[in-house]
Amino acid sequence: MTREEAEEFCEGEEGVLFADGFDDCILGVVNTPSTKICYNADKMIHSLINKDNLTFEEATEHFSFNIEGAYIGEYTPLYIWGVDTDY
């Protein structure tokens, strides 16, 4: 799903949050009861490695503490591990 598709799907929903710089990692949208964007966590790690020239360990640590571990309220995006995709 592209960011544009996600934004269109969420049109009219308040508070929906996106993880900046990871539009290519969006899997979809869930309603739980608030609307949240779902991301492919594995793809985000690989994106950090490629874009920021980090090692796997550095990217995983950065993701764990600064992205996945950042709670920004009920609209905090969801991160899904183990999705089978090509990087």
Annotation keywords:
single chain; 87 residues; alpha+beta; 37% helix
What's the topology here?
Blueprint: H1 3-9, E1 26-31, E2 35-40, H2 41-52, H3 56-68, E3 78-80
Parallel strand pairs: 2-3
Antiparallel strand pairs: 1-2
Question: Could you characterize the architecture of this molecule?
Answer:
- The protein is of the alpha+beta class and 87 residues long.
- The chain has one domain (3-80).
- Helices cover 37% and strands 17% of the residues.
- It has helices at residues 3-9, 41-52, 56-68, and strands at 26-31, 35-40, 78-80.
- A three-stranded mixed beta sheet has the order 1-2-3.
- The longest helix is centred in the C-terminal third of the chain and has 13 residues, at 56-68.
How many helical elements? 3
What oligomeric assembly is this protein in? single chain
The stretches of 5 or more residues where confidence is low (pLDDT under 50) are none
Q: Which sheet architecture does the biggest sheet show? A: 3 strands, mixed
Strand composition percent = 15-25%
- Report mean pLDDT, rounded to a whole number: 93
Q: How many separate structural domains? A: 1
Rg value: 13 Å
Q: What is the ordering of alpha helices and beta strands?
A: HEEHHE
Within the largest sheet, what's the order of strands?
Answer: 1-2-3
Which structural class fits the helix and strand makeup? alpha+beta
How many runs of DSSP E, i.e. beta strands? 3
DSSP helix fraction: 25-40%
N-to-C span? 15 Å
Envelope shape: globular
